[in-house]
């Protein structure tokens, strides 16, 4: 496949080698192929990797079947993919509660398989939502952009906003939970606060108070497994419907990824994509 990019106005000049390795995080194997096959062009001309590139330059990258291995993803049902945004490189989809982001085996169908069916091509998981959580999920449409988006997540350049309905009330309207999270040695399905765990930071803002519940907005600086669920339950405010960290409920777990904000990796624009869950809103509207 051939990809063409115009470097944006705010681009800082750098050698082509740095652009490929340090800015776009292209793996070493694929950089080798680009160099040996002469598949990297600047302004339609062959270049050496030490050449400086500048804002406004056209970069052409060509990848063939040898450059990336196939994912061999089984297609699911296209009608189960609620696509919120799509372009040449990435796609954002609204995941319903109760559906996995990706399957654990090659034969298990999940959101990834349904998205692939909807656009008739493989897609690659950038991040995931818990099965019981609904909302916006980002997939890469090619293996070239996959490490770029992954690095953006690691560096907290991609922001996610969650809505959660929790038990009880808080004394503050805004606060931050900065508590490391680690594996629960007694239950592999659970996470716990642990000084030896991974750094985890959740910012919490009160949206609305009900009789004995509170609607909060949570934004993340990190993306640990079950992060919001563990952090809120550690304050004795578990998410309603969270059977793992709170109490069982006949209704869904009230956690929804309502917005994802992505600085586009190749274009000088910010994508702000919202997702709506009717089941979340239905329960919320019945809450007093």
TrEMBL record:
The keyword Isomerase applies. InterPro entries: PsdUridine_synth_cat_dom_sf (IPR020103), PsdUridine_synth_RluA-like_CS (IPR006224), PsdUridine_synth_RluC/D (IPR006225), PsdUridine_synth_RsuA/RluA (IPR006145), RluA_PseudoU_synthase (IPR050188). GO terms for molecular function: catalytic activity, acting on RNA; pseudouridine synthase activity; RNA binding. Residues 89-234 form the Pseudouridine synthase RsuA/RluA-like domain. Coiled coil: none annotated. It comes from the Bacteria. Pfam families: PseudoU_synth_2 (PF00849). The active site is at residue 130. Its EC number is 5.4.99.-. Keywords: Isomerase. CDD domains: PseudoU_synth_RluA_like. GO terms for biological process: enzyme-directed rRNA pseudouridine synthesis. It catalyses: a uridine in RNA = a pseudouridine in RNA. Belongs to the pseudouridine synthase RluA family. Responsible for synthesis of pseudouridine from uracil. This is Pseudouridine synthase.
């Amino acid at each position: 496949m051939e990809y063409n990019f115009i470097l944006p106005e705010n681009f800082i000049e750098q050698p082509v080698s740095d652009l490929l390795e340090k800015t776009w995080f292209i793996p070493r194997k694929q950089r080798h192929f680009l160099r040996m096959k002469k598949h990297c062009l600047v302004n339609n001309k062959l270049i050496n990797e030490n050449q400086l590139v500048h804002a406004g330059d056209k970069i052409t990258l060509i990848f063939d079947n040898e450059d990336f291995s196939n994912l061999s993803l089984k297609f699911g049902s296209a009608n189960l993919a609620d696509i919120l945004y799509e372009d040449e490189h990435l796609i954002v989809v609204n995941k319903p509660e109760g559906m996995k982001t990706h399957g654990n085996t090659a034969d298990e169908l999940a959101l990834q398989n349904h998205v692939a069916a909807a656009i008739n091509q493989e897609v690659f998981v950038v991040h995931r939502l818990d099965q019981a959580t609904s909302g916006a999920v980002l997939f890469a449409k090619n293996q070239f952009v996959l490490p770029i988006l992954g690095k953006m997540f690691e560096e907290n350049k991609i922001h996610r906003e969650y809505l959660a309905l929790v038990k009880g009330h808080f004394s503050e309207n805004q606060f931050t939970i900065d508590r490391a999270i680690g594996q629960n040695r007694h239950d592999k399905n659970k996470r716990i606060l642990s000084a030896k765990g991974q750094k985890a930071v959740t910012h919490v803002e009160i949206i609305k108070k009900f009789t004995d519940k509170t609607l909060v907005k949570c934004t993340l600086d990190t993306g640990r497994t079950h992060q919001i669920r563990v952090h809120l339950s550690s304050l004795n405010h578990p998410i309603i419907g969270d059977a793992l960290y709170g109490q069982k409920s006949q209704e869904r777990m009230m956690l929804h990824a309502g917005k994802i904000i992505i600085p586009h990796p190749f274009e000088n624009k910010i994508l702000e994509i919202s997702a709506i869950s009717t089941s979340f809103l239905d329960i919320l509207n019945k809450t007093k």
